[in-house]
Design goal:
By secondary structure, this protein is an all-alpha fold. Helix content is about 75%, strand content about 0%. It is built from 16 helices and two strands.
């Protein structure tokens, strides 16, 4: 049952105090003050990172409220788009500062966390309640195919860079890789637009299953949760303000990330690939965990798969290419050419998940395997030293040459 939306004052109070995570909101002004006073990069970075958690959660909440006033397809698109808002805002701020490696690694980390951590938790918690769960095999195969396409397409500039480095055209390698990355980005954006068109207009509705005469307690609980706390106008205003606050804190994060990593004696690659995406996906991870618990009771893991894999697909087809083209507009040479270890993590993760998804079945062991793989990759990034932060291609060829 949906109830009438609240007044503007009540809506604002609900946005500000509707989550326990909002207790961390004062860390935002504290981070801005610490950055202005030059107290220390470590303190500024940690405070800004803490404040991003409730902002990401509130962006997810406002998006869900806006989605209640749209169709199911448009709502799903809204959730997928703003679910990655934090990562995209951080990427734009990093591009403005010329920290191109931070852009690459944070987007890479978002794909890894969604496909391994979020999806792994969904499989694990769902499998704890049910020995084996079944989901829509055709939908999973479609997700897997799009992911593999994105991964293979993104690897092409990396392969070109490796081959050209060993050839007589070494001096033109960076220019070739950069040009190819920009053209590939256009193709990926076209693929993403085609995917949106397919989901919004072309794909047929899933077959309906006759509901029971009386809804189950779980279904009643889900219906109660889908209440219109905010109107569509209130939701869009809240999204605009939350994204603006996120942009301000992202400036602090980007400006202090190098100093914080150096002060903590932690590789910048670990901070960019592991810490930033987990905070940026805080709302999505929490949502996926709740979905997993609900799906464990209802034995329907399709929604959790859509949240995790859909977000990873969007980062691959939209996040990476949009960042490359935005950097081009800023005059920064951001390409899709990453270091071999990073490319291997991306490709192997996508291929591994693409192998698991089409089976149509999940269990707790598959979930634990995905989580374990994420832990292994996170530990590997602790030993992955990628000190160059401004020119990925040049740094790569220098390190390998």
């Amino acid at each position: 049952m949906r109830r009438r939306t609240k007044s503007a004052a009540h809506a604002a109070l609900h946005v500000l105090f509707g989550s326990r995570l909002n207790l961390l909101l004062p860390c935002g002004p504290a981070a801005l003050l610490a950055a202005r006073l030059g107290i220390g990069d470590e303190i500024s970075f940690l405070l800004a990172l803490a404040a991003l958690c409730p902002l990401a959660e509130r962006i997810g909440y406002a998006t869900e409220q806006a989605a209640l006033h749209t169709s199911s397809q448009a709502g799903a698109l809204l959730n997928a788009t703003f679910g990655n808002a934090t990562e995209l805002i951080v990427s734009l701020c990093a591009i403005r500062e010329g920290l191109l490696r931070v852009v690459q690694l944070s987007l890479l980390g978002s794909v890894l966390s969604n496909l391994l951590l979020v999806l792994g938790c969904a499989f694990f918690f769902g499998g704890v309640r049910h020995a084996t769960q079944r989901y829509d095999q055709k939908s999973a195969e479609a997700h897997a195919a799009v992911l593999v396409l994105g991964a293979v397409t993104m690897v092409v500039p990396d392969v070109l860079g490796e081959g050209e480095t060993k050839s007589s055209r070494h001096e033109d390698t960076e220019s070739d890789v950069l040009s190819l990355s920009r053209w590939v980005s256009v193709v990926l954006l076209f693929s993403y637009a085609s995917l949106i068109a397919f989901e919004l207009g072309i794909s047929p509705a899933p077959p309906e299953i006759s509901p029971p005469l009386s809804p189950s307690p779980e279904e009643e609980e889900v219906e109660e949760e889908e209440e219109e706390e905010l109107s569509f106008r209130q939701s869009t205003v809240a999204l605009a303000l939350l994204c603006a606050a996120t942009a301000g804190l992202s400036e602090v994060v980007v400006g202090s990330i190098q100093g914080a990593a150096a002060g903590a004696k932690v590789p910048l690659a670990f901070v960019s690939t592991i810490l930033l995406p987990i905070v940026g996906n805080a709302a999505e991870h929490a949502s996926a965990a709740l979905d997993a618990v609900a799906l464990a009771a209802r034995n329907k893991p399709d929604l959790a798969i859509g949240v995790a894999v859909g977000s990873a697909t969007q980062i691959t087809l939209l996040g990476f290419p949009a960042s490359v083209l935005a950097a081009w507009a800023y005059g920064e040479p951001l390409s899709l050419d990453m270091l071999p270890f990073e490319t291997a993590c991306l490709v192997l993760t996508i291929l591994g998940v693409a192998t698991v998804l089409p089976s149509g079945r999940s269990n707790w062991l598959k979930g634990l395997t995905l989580i374990s793989l994420y832990v292994v990759i996170a530990l590997a990034f602790l030993f992955h030293d990628s000190s160059e932060t401004r020119a990925p291609a040049a740094a790569k060829h220098k390190r390998l040459g």
